[in-house]
Amino acid sequence: MESSAVADCLRDKCILITGSTGYLGKLLVEKILRVQPVVKKLYLLVRAPDATSAEQRVLSEVIGKDPFNLLREKYGITGFHNFIKEKVVPLAGDIVDGYLGLHNSRVHALSEEIDVIINVAETTNFFERFVP
User: Fold this and answer.
1) Domains detected in the chain
2) DSSP assignments along 46-79, one per residue
């Protein structure tokens, strides 16, 4: 499949991404925003106790990193911030919790809106048993 076909599949879609604060996750977020700027929304699930902390974590650990420099140059500082605010929605939660640590009402609303789920998350508990 050509990369343009993949980008076309993401046009006007709402995407839930887990693991966006990790190395591959932030590269994935940047790539989607760069090659398919008409993606509707990127919901980024991050470990955080509340919405404010989730937003801060996304801004500092994802959007604030070097891979986003091309987008900053393309849109300028103000345009970049507006673009990110329009496209990126941080979600406070955790993949190891039931319903991803989200309230039932939020899960229901997201289930009506999300078109694609991309899981690049991993657990950082190094005491877990490996099961092949």
Assistant:
1) 3-119 (3.40.50)
2) EE-SSHHHHHHHHIIIIITSGGGHHHHHHHHHHH
